[in-house]
Amino acid sequence: MAGNTVKIGNTLVGNDQPCYVVAEIGINHNGSLETAKEIIKVSAEAGCNAVKFQKRTVDVVYTPEELARPRENPFGATNGDLKRGLEFGLAEYREIDRYCKNLKIDWFVSCWDEASVDFMEQFNPPCYKIASASLTDDDLLRHHRKYGRPIILSTGMSTMAEIEHAVEVLGQDDLIVLHSTSTYPAQLNELNLKMISTLMDKYDLPIGYSGHEPGLSTTFATAVMGASMIEKHITLDRAMWGSDQAASVEPAGIERLIEYISQWEEASGNGIKKVYESEIPIREKLRRKG
Question: Which domains are seen in the chain, by residue range?
Answer without folding.
Answer: 5-286 (3.20.20.70)
